[in-house]
Write a structure and sequence with these properties.
By secondary structure, this protein is α/β, with parallel strands linked by helices. The chain has one domain (about 1-175): Nucleotidyltransferase, domain 5, CATH 3.30.420.10. It has six helices and five strands, in the order E-E-E-H-E-H-E-H-H-H-H.
């Protein structure tokens, strides 16, 4: 499975392509989409959309994983990041690429084992999990690889849950045609 992980932002959007073969994970490419300060927001968003579209077209990933918005102290920044997430999801939607979102805590937990890991710990674990000689830089690229790893770690469980019959359908199937249970 090939996953494009995204760490969205209007100034810097990190991306990372991770391929899984069984339990082995391999980083294929990582980087950052930089937009120039002082450029109107709509042009920055258009640049992010175009670059993500290029990545999707060039690599044809099986899924896109994007970090969810974290509302910190600066609501204005949060709205801009949300808009960057929107154009990333738009690019995936236009191409029919399934997309999943993960909270920063889910990503940190999947990579480091707990949701309160620092950026440096996430970077070191990403390097270790992917067999890289050094921590990917800048940190937005490492974060994007972490988002992809999170998706790949959760994918087997998600597939199993999706394939399992729902509890409601098992209850209906076991209750007989009339909807009442057959008790003696």
């Amino acid at each position: 499975m090939l996953v494009l992980g995204i760490d969205p932002g209007t100034a810097s959007t990190g991306y990372g392509l991770v391929h899984s073969q069984g339990s082995q994970l391999h980083a294929l490419q990582e980087g950052v989409i930089q937009t120039a300060p002082g450029v109107p927001l709509e042009r920055r968003l258009a640049e992010i959309h175009a670059r993500v579209a290029e990545l999707l077209d060039a690599h044809r990933p099986d899924a896109l994983a994007v970090e969810e918005l974290y509302f910190g102290a600066n609501v204005r920044t949060a709205f801009a990041v949300g808009q960057a997430r929107g154009v990333v999801l738009l690019a995936a939607g236009q191409r029919g690429v399934p997309s999943r979102s993960y909270t920063p805590q889910q990503v940190k937990s999947a990579v480091c084992g707990h949701g309160r890991a620092g950026k440096d710990q996430v970077g070191r674990m990403v390097a270790r999990l992917l067999g890289l000689a050094a921590v990917p830089t800048p940190d937005h690229a490492a974060d994007a690889l972490a988002v992809a790893i999170c998706h790949l770690n959760r994918a087997p469980l998600a597939l199993a849950v999706a394939a399992a019959p729902s509890a409601a359908s098992r209850t209906r199937a076991g209750s007989g045609a009339s909807g009442t249970s057959a008790r003696a």
